[in-house]
Amino acid sequence: MEIKGKKMTVVGLGRSGVGASNLLAEIGAEVTITDNKTEKELKDFITRLNPSVKLALGGHPENIFLSADMVVISPGVLLDSKPILYAKEKGIPIIGELELAYQIASSKFKVQSSKFLAITGSNGKSTTTALLGFMMRKSGFRTILGGNIGNALTEEIRKVLGVKGKEIDDSSPHFSRFTLPDYIVAEVSSFQLESIEDFKPRGAAILNITPDHLDRYHSLEEYRDAKARIIENQNEDDFLVLNADDPEIVKVVSEKLKVKSKIPRIFSFSRKKEVEGLYFKDGIIYCNLPPMTGTVPSCPRHSSLIHVDEIRIKGVHNLENAMAASAMALLAGCPADAVGESLKEFQGLEHRLEFVREIDGVRYFNDSKGTNVGAVIKSLESFTEPIILIAGGRDKAGDFSLLRNLVKERVKAVVLIGEAAEKIKKALGDITETLMAEDLKESVVLSRSLAVRGDVVLLSPSCASFDMFMDFEDRGRQFKKIVMEMT
Questions:
Q1: CATH number for 368
Q2: Which domain holds residue 34?
Q3: In 3D, which of 201, 196, 249 has the Cα closest to residue 374?
Q4: Residues 105 and 224 in one domain
Q5: Burial label, 86 (beta-carbon count in 10 A; 0-12, 13-18, 19+)
């Protein structure tokens, strides 16, 4: 990819937009970044931009698309938006931030020494990605970690390639002093996968597919097809790890493989049956991996990897995440003992079923990353205690009726906030006590008044956060602040 001296338009001024703009600018491109939001709304991101990046905010001027040599879009940008369609009609290349990161890494890091390991799915992506990165580093591999997990891949690659504010020159002595990574571990979303072209991970995993983002996709089939693009460019030299217990994954991957001439090696993980890969049985995770080309697996067939009680992160969903990350790590060459030790040590991520505090015998958990119904199902399954559930936010066309059985079985009360409160009340209000709160603070106060010793108060919204908060992290941190300040 020729970048130096080229005109690049980056669409969307968030983390991905900042990462892409700065990387392009430091390689020597002329960069303009555009966003519908105003300068005032985006001031925190603007301060992080390379000074050479030009701004076109408060709308998308047509001329910066039509005059560009390439358009790079952030994950939230719709591919069928008018400015993107205009550029397409003119034959201007359009790629996503993930594709940009892949192409630059492939060029600068000489792919053979830097391999992509990519993880997607509706739920558990961030935890699995972070755990895999932990395992890779524990095993001694030089590892970049990024993507949808919160730090843009372009930003992480920029850190390796150069120094902020200076043009990158890969022929310079400065560049030669950097130690190139062995692996790039990436969390990838359906939004990012929509705009790939050459993106080809050495190893890929699909964790689960449940209805999500149906405010963007016309159907579950369209959403799962976007997820399945992770395997689009893989071949027989690559490997794919799948959740064998998820029928949607089995279906979409089978359809995808029928039209592929080159098929990656396929492995699975399962909580319910023995598979070629990793499986759970009688409280133990077993390894059942065959030799890869030129390698011998570090754990023999049907050998014990770890007892579930030794895994530090708890919950049904984290058992699946642990198996997925372990399979990826073992297939990438990590020793089994390093993988096992990682499972014992890894503490989990903020906002993912995160224990906050115990007050008067009531435990408070922050699961702000539970932004869809499937995620909340996994979280509810993780508790045997009575739950007061705080939910609501901006609806993503979720089917809240799918929560009915678990709410009836485990939830003693639901406290609702945000734009989706009335919709959730209609779906669940007849099976458990349901209260409406004006804001997050009132929801916590109401939950405390309902809870007794031995109960759990769980923030797991089942919705996006953008009606009341900057993002799910802002929502989670505000929840923790409220809980920590209670007396």
A1: 3.90.190.20
A2: 7-92
A3: 249
A4: yes
A5: middle
Residues 425 and 309 in one domain: no
Task: Give the number of other Cβ atoms within 10 Å of residue 266's Cβ.
Answer: 14
Residue 484, C-beta contacts closer than 8 angstroms, at least 6 positions apart = 356, 357
- pTM listed for this prediction: 0.82
d(CA 12, CA 143): 27
Q: CA–CA distance from 304 to each of 260, 284, 321 (Å)?
A: 35, 7, 17
Q: Is 171's pLDDT higher than 80?
A: no
Q: Which residues pair with 414 in a beta bridge?
A: 389, 434
- CB atoms closer than 10 angstroms to residue 187: 26
Residues 74 and 105 in one domain: no
Beta strands in 225-361 (DSSP E): 239-243, 265-270, 277-281, 284-288, 303-307, 354-359
**Spatial distance between the Cα atoms of 284 and 299, rounded to a whole number of angstroms:** 14
**CATH number of the domain within which 322 lies:** 3.40.1190.10
Q: How many residues does the chain have?
A: 487
The answer as to whether 328 is a domain residue is yes
Choose between 300 and 158: higher pLDDT.
Answer: 158
- C-alpha span between 379 and 428 (Å, rounded): 17
From the CB of residue 28, how many other CB atoms can be counted at a distance below 10 Å?
A: 15
Q: Of 236, 225, 232, nearest to 199 (Cα)? A: 232
320-367 pLDDT, tens digit each: 999 999 999 999 999 999 999 999 999 888 888 889 999 999 999 999
pLDDT at residue 295, as a whole number: 53
CB 16 within 8 A of CB 75: yes
What is the DSSP secondary structure assignment for residue 430, as one 8-state letter? T
333 and 394 in a common domain: no
Q: What is the mean pLDDT of residues 193-215?
A: 88
Same domain membership, residue 184 and residue 120? yes
User: Which one-letter DSSP state was computed for residue 414?
Assistant: E
Alpha-carbon distance of 473 to 466, in angstroms, equals: 11
Of residues 206, 182, 456, the one with CA closest to residue 328: 206
Higher pLDDT, 283 or 111: 283
